[in-house]
Amino acid sequence: MKENRLVVVGGGFAGINLAKKLAGKDQFKVTIVDKNNYHFFPPLLYQVSTAFIEASNISYPFRKLFQERDNIRFHMGSLIKVNPESNTIETDTGILSYDYLVLALGTETNFFGNPNVMRCGLPMKTIDDALNIRNHVLLRLEEAVRATALEDKARLSNIVVAGGGPTGVEMVGMMAELAHKIAAKDYPEAASRIGAIYLIDGSPTLLGPMSKTAQAESFKVLSKFGVKIMLNTLVKDYVNETVILSTGESIKAATLIWTSGVIGREVPGLAPEVVARGRRLAVDEINRVKGYTNIFAVGDIAYQTTDPDYASSHPQLAQVAIQQGTLLAENLLRIDRGQAPKPFRYNNKGSMAIISKFKAVVDLPKGSFKGFFAWLVWLFIHIIPLVGFRNRVKLAFNWLFSFLTDDPTLRLIIRPRKKEISTQPCVKVDGNSSIDRAASPPIR
Ligand SMILES: Cc1cc2nc3c(=O)[nH]c(=O)nc-3n(C[C@H](O)[C@H](O)[C@H](O)COP(=O)(O)OP(=O)(O)OC[C@H]3O[C@@H](n4cnc5c(N)ncnc54)[C@H](O)[C@@H]3O)c2cc1C
Domain External alternative NADH-ubiquinone oxidoreductase-like C-terminal: where (predicted)? Predict the structure, then answer.
């Protein structure tokens, strides 16, 4: 039996669903390449960043995921370059050869070329980003309670979220919950509520791609919670902890969270003409990158215009990535058997967003609903796809505890210690070393 070397770069929704489908299919020797050693679930990142759940609740190590899958291997490394002429990829940890290559790297935050926002704004794309936001907000609040001037207290505790899509809406909804239910208990030094939460978007509505019901409900619920919503407004710059808006107004805020847009991750080595809108890779109806015979792209990074219902490509959603990854695995098996591959058609199962505790909005292809039932559906839908039974149980328990007590206990500022990097190599110390042995702790 011929063995095909298949390299999949990116172990997100598209990459792992493709690999899972090929598990046990020995005609493919699959190597998943990812810069992290874990798969994670982006839809719940905002709950990590607001200290509601632990990062480990929504992450799972690749090596454990594919423990008993003999034809699947993991390579930890970041893609540097594709070499189509030699069928190899370069990563920062080595070179890999392939017969088929699948690019499933997803997207990164788009700062629209603003260097100040890039430097001082906080993106929300990865587990690192979410933990960074958590630490940043908690540190600023500690500074705010120590500050003496009222305007410093306000600046340090104001939070501006740029981007009124699902991530921005879910983020401010949760922050408003925390501000109402926890801030007064945790920060008794702040006699009255200080600081405000702003949600800013350039379009005329929140939740742009969702139904009118979802847009109106999110605006109503968040406004009632005290979130200051500014529509038809763009963030122009972020200078000296001041958010400068297109309306000429500005907001003093030590925290600017940027959820305003994404752009495809760069893939050096491919012909420039395959790079389409949003830096996505132009693919044909079976997700093959245009102009190549053995390179494919799936998920957020793929730009496909052959699906009759999505002529300007698909929305960048988990379901699209899952369905593309799964179909590509089936198509690779078909190609291997000499059968014709099937074109991709997206089966839209609906979209949803949570606005606050007990309130969510759900859009299905045949209608929308909102409120408590929508919230229950949201909870269920977000537990089922988590990787790992233990993660599902832990998350369900954490949610139950947090919703019942209104007081989760994860508001910890934990940062890895930054160590001075020495230019001297570490060498074996001999018996006559001048190290002060008395200063070292005794070995027991
Ligand atoms: C905060 C947030 C909330 C979201 N909420 C929802 C939601 O509620 N519903 C929904 O449908 N969609 C949601 N999405 C979108 C959804 O997460 C994406 O559509 C989906 O993750 C795309 O899957 P993917 O496999 O294409 O890419 P990703 O899931 O982004 O996976 C890409 C993988 O590639 C790896 N990678 C990146 N660069 C490199 C490199 N250079 N070398 C090696 N590996 C690399 C990454 O580590 C990652 O594992 C949300 C996204 C975010 C950021």
Answer: 349-404
Q: Is residue 206 part of a domain?
A: yes
For ligand 1, whether the C-beta of 12 sits within 6 Å is: yes
Average pLDDT, the chain: 90
In the listed set 302, 336, 370, which residue is the last one of a domain according to the structure? 336
Q: Per-residue pLDDT tens for 67-123?
A: 989 999 999 999 999 999 999 999 999 999 999 999 999 999 999 999 999 999 999
Residues 244 and 322 in one domain: no
Report the separation in Å between the CA atom of 106 and the middle of ligand 1, taken as the mean of its atom positions. 5
Distance, in Å, from the CA atom of 123 to the CA atom of 218, rounded to the nearest integer, reads 22
Q: Which domain holds residue 15?
A: 4-109+262-336
Between CA 240 and CA 242, with CA 241 as vertex, the angle to 5 degrees is: 90
Q: Which residue has the higher pLDDT, 68 or 25?
A: 25
**Overall number of domains in the chain:** 2
Helix (H, G, I), strand (E, B) or coil at 187: coil
Q: Which atom of ligand 1 is nearest to the CA of 91?
A: 42
Which of the listed residues 300, 322, 364 should we mutate to test ligand 1's pocket, taking the one with most ligand atoms within 8 A of CB?
300
List of long-range contacts for 315-322, beta carbons under 8 Å, 24+ apart: 315/209, 316/107, 316/262, 317/351, 318/13, 318/42, 318/43, 318/385, 319/346, 319/347, 319/348, 319/349, 320/346, 321/12, 321/13, 321/14, 321/17, 321/104, 321/106, 322/13, 322/14, 322/17
pLDDT at 430: 65
Query: Cβ(15) to ligand 1 under 6 A?
Result: yes
Contact 78 CB / ligand 1 (< 6 Å): yes
Q: Same structural domain for residues 84 and 38?
A: yes
56 and 142 co-located in one domain: no
Q: What is the structure's pLDDT at 194? A: 65
Q: How far apart are CA 153 and CA 140, in angstroms?
A: 9
152: domain CATH number?
3.50.50.100
Mutate to test the pocket of ligand 1, among 17, 34, 129 (most ligand atoms within 8 A of CB): 34
Ligand 1 center–CA 291 separation, angstroms? 25
103 in the same domain as 57: yes
Most confident by average pLDDT, 71-80, 376-385, 413-422? 71-80
Q: 10 Å Cβ neighbour count for 287? A: 26
